[in-house]
Amino acid sequence: DLKLGTQIDLPEKELLSVLIYTKNNLCFFRLLKHHARNKPLYNIFQGMSIAVLGPTFQNLADNVNKNVSDIYYIFVGRSLGYLGGSVLGGVLFDCMNAHLLLALSMLATTIGLYGIPWCKKSLLLTVLMSVIGSSMGILDTGK
Fold first, then answer.
1. Is 65 exposed, middle or buried (0-12, 13-18, 19+ CB in 10 A)?
2. Contact status, residue 136 vs residue 46, Cβ threshold 8 Å
3. Which residues are CB-contacts of 77 (< 8 A; sequence separation ≥ 6)?
4. How far is 64 from 48, CA to CA, in rounded Å?
5. Transmembrane segments in this chain: where (predicted)?
6. pLDDT tens digits for 113-132?
7. Domain extents in the chain
8. 43, 17, 40, 41: which is closest to 30 by C-alpha?
9. Is the model's pTM score more than 0.85?
10. pLDDT in tens, 130-142
11. How far apart are CA 67 and CA 58, in angstroms?
């Protein structure tokens, strides 16, 4: 007999939470499916890719021939990209294959992070950071 908030553990790959609401003798099931196996690894790598700006900030400023205080807007670009990517991801996950979208977002994040050291113009660096932010926003929407 299932009660409100009952947890059902499935073997290794999936964790299934079942919440049962009763109203007028009708039961409504809400299934939340989590892929718990790869989640810690994903969180570590995404945290590293977000935090990479801190230790490399002086080097990025040197690459674009600016002072550290003059390139603060790359944080704004990444945050606006993240916001836009979250909104875009919400729309795209309804229209296309979720696995394909997640793979493309991971590829965009990888290419963006790889291309950061070769940015010699501050505008190009800001655009690249915005692309990285938007792909991370899509990834967070879909995970």
1. exposed
2. yes
3. 126, 127, 129, 130, 133
4. 23
5. 72-93, 100-116, 122-139
6. 889 889 999 999 999 999 99
7. 1-37, 39-142
8. 17
9. no
10. 999 999 999 888 7
11. 8
Phi and psi at residue 15, to the nearest 5°: -115, 125
> What distance in Å separates the CA atoms of residue 23 and residue 37, rounded to the nearest whole number?
35
Between the alpha carbon of residue 116 and those of residues 19, 28, 67, 123, the distances in Å are: 45, 49, 17, 12
CA distance 77 to 127: 7
Number of Cβ atoms within 10 Å of the Cβ of 137? 24
Query: Long-range contacts made by residues 69-76, C-beta under 8 angstroms, separation at least 24?
Result: 70/122, 71/122, 71/125, 73/122, 73/126, 74/122, 74/125, 74/126, 74/129, 75/129
* C-alpha span between 28 and 18 (Å, rounded): 10
Q: What are phi and psi of 27, to 5 degrees?
A: -110, 130
- CA atoms 133, 139, 141, 143: torsion sign: negative
